[in-house]
Design a protein that fits this description.
Blueprint: H1 5-10, H2 18-37
């Protein structure tokens, strides 16, 4: 299984860092592109 830690970062109320959210969104975009390739 894939590690969805970035999702935990997004939904963690203690973490309010736009940069982290953007990184997580970018990470998810890479996963989507990878799924489309495969």
């Amino acid at each position: 299984m894939l590690n969805f830690y970035p999702l935990q970062v997004i939904f963690d109320p203690k973490v309010k860092q736009p940069e982290v959210t953007l990184r997580a969104a970018f990470f998810m975009a890479i996963l989507v592109l990878g799924n489309n390739k495969g």
